[in-house]
């Protein structure tokens, strides 16, 4: 049975379905459609289904090539979105790309993943291959996905259907480029299944495709994102120490990285997005109380504290200017979690805004990519007592600081992303504060 499927995949004749047409599922559906497959996308948001079927891209941020590709594959009838589970019945290969958040206690919330399996099971075709692209805690394929599919389909894994985990590695802003250029781990329920997955992904990926088992694929994905979170936390902790010790983390980082095998990450105003703030918790969940997990939660705490640290920097800056935070007007530059993206999930700015309001500040927000906060930047900042850079959007990198100074009531710039410099801000007449840079260094004009 697997050989028949392998042949169909080889010839791009297999019917594909993608469950969940978000940042991951939509580009994946589009590139498989471009590779010649007939693709059905199952999505629970009706407005998204309508938009995609009209050939319009529902992602507002910059995604080079995606709107054009979507329009092309929809017009060519290679991709069709649907809200009807029955449309999964013809699928030979089903890719699942639904969200996998964690709850308040950092435990995985598999409502969407379970619902996707329950939609699929009753109509699952004999001999089909089901691949989870979502990021899941180690053990989830074996403990949740397999039993749910077996129960709802009445079929057994490796007999009636095949199972894979091929976690996605894309980043918003580069979805199509990442899909093609990034290597992937193809975890299969058997080595033969992993081999068929490699044949499938070879149609769209121009990098290594590494065969693995299911739990290895789950571990690799969560570990690679936890690695990033821990590295960023280290950089953030050094930044906080630099502020206290009278140093400049950017200079320190540059010199640290001259030492062999050191690659200190970038510190900043916080870590956001759907993945990095929760994937470390998914990895930690894999320990299931059998192994002690200490580093990952500590790193999370450091990174989650950075937007609150930004609030402290704003308060200190205002204090030096003789203006209390309560009643001050603070302008936030950037609300998405990533430059030139519309993705606001787990946005550090959200935490900062809530904190500043809690402390009595009036807060105005600008973001060129987030509909709610679009508008003319300088108009938005007029009369503010501080401008706080949270996201390095291109619009902000090109900002005329003299023009910024002219609209502010109090000339304070707090930089959470190392976009500006003391010198540049000083020339424009702005008092400059930055993550990881001791205020004392301002006085020296360094
Ligand atoms: N966003 C990223 O950059 C990224 C990168 C790598 C991996 N991932 C992982 O990929 C997964 C998806 O992330 P995303 O960013 O694409 O999420 P998303 O929220 O953008 O997309 C998920 C989509 O699935 C739909 N959906 C939810 N339940 C459904 C169901 N039962 N049936 C049909 N549709 C359903 C939602 O309406 C949504 O449109 C997550 O596990 C995430 O961790 C995301």
Strand order of the largest sheet: 3-2-1-4-5-6-7-8
Radius of gyration over alpha carbons? 24 Å
Report the portion of residues in β strands. 5-15%
Identify low-pLDDT runs.
Answer: 441-446
Indicate the overall shape: elongated
How far apart, in Å, are the first and last alpha carbons?
A: 69 Å
Q: What structural category do the secondary elements indicate?
A: alpha/beta
Biggest sheet layout: 8 strands, mixed
Number of helices: 19
Overall number of strands:
13
Give helix % range.
40-55%
CATH architecture of the largest domain: 3-Layer(aba) Sandwich
* CATH fold-level topology of the largest domain: Rossmann fold
What is the total number of structural domains?
A: 2
Mean pLDDT reading: 96
Write up this protein:
The chain is an alpha/beta fold and 446 residues long. The chain has 2 domains: 2-222, 3-Layer(aba) Sandwich (Rossmann fold), CATH 3.40.50; 305-444, Rossmann fold, CATH 3.40.50.720. Helix content is 43%, strand content 13%. It has 19 helices and 13 strands. The strands form 2 sheets. The protein has an 8-stranded mixed beta sheet, with helices on both faces. Strands 10-9-11-12-13 form a 5-stranded parallel beta sheet. Helix 6 links the parallel strand 5 and strand 6 (161-165). It is elongated. The structure holds nicotinamide-adenine-dinucleotide (NAD). Nicotinamide-adenine-dinucleotide (NAD) binds at residues 19-25, 42-45, 48, 97-100, 112, 115-116, 119, 134-135, 168-172, 274-275.
């Amino acid at each position: 049975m697997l050989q028949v499927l392998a042949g169909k995949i080889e010839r791009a004749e297999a019917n594909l379905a993608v469950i969940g047409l978000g940042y991951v599922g939509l580009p994946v559906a589009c590139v498989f459609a471009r590779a010649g497959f007939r693709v059905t996308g199952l999505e629970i948001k009706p407005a998204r289904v309508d938009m995609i079927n009209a050939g319009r891209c529902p992602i507002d941020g910059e995604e080079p090539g995606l709107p054009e590709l979507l329009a092309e594959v929809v017009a060519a009838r290679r991709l069709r979105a649907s809200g009807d589970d029955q449309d999964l019945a013809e699928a030979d290969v089903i890719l699942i790309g639904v969200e996998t958040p964690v709850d308040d206690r950092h435990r995985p919330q598999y409502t969407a993943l379970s619902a996707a399996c329950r939609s699929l099971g009753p109509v699952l075709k004999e001999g089909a291959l089901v691949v989870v692209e979502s990021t899941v805690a180690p053990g989830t394929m074996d403990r949740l996905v397999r039993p749910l599919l077996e129960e709802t389909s009445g079929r057994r894994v490796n007999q009636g259907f095949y199972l894979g985990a091929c976690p996605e590695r894309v980043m918003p802003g580069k979805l199509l480029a990442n899909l093609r250029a990034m290597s992937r781990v193809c975890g299969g329920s058997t080595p033969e299944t992993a081999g068929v997955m490699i044949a499938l992904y070879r149609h769209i990926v121009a990098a290594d495709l590494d065969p693995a088992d299911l739990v290895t694929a789950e571990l690799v994905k969560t570990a690679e994102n936890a690695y990033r979170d821990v590295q960023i936390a280290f950089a953030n902790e050094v930044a906080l120490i630099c502020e206290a010790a009278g140093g400049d983390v950017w200079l320190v980082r540059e010199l640290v990285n001259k030492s062999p095998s050191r690659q200190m990450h970038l510190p900043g105003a916080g870590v956001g997005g759907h993945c990095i703030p929760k994937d470390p918790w998914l990895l930690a969940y894999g320990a299931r109380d059998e192994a002690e997990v200490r580093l990952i939660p500590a790193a999370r705490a450091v990174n989650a504290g950075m937007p609150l640290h930004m609030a402290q920097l704003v308060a200190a800056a205002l204090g030096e200017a003789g203006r209390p935070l309560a009643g001050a007007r603070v302008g936030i530059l950037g609300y998405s979690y990533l430059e030139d993206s519309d993705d606001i999930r787990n946005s550090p700015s959200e935490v900062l805004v809530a904190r500043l309001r809690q402390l009595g500040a009036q807060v105005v927000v600008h973001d060129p990519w987030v509909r709610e906060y679009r508008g003319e930047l300088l108009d938005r900042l007029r009369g503010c007592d501080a401008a706080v850079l949270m996201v390095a959007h291109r619009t902000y990198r090109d900002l005329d600081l003299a023009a910024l100074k002219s609209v502010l009531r109090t000339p304070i710039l707090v930089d959470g992303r190392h976009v500006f410099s003391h010198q540049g801000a000083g020339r424009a007449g702005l008092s400059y504060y930055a993550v990881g840079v001791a205020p004392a260094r301002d006085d020296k004009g360094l």
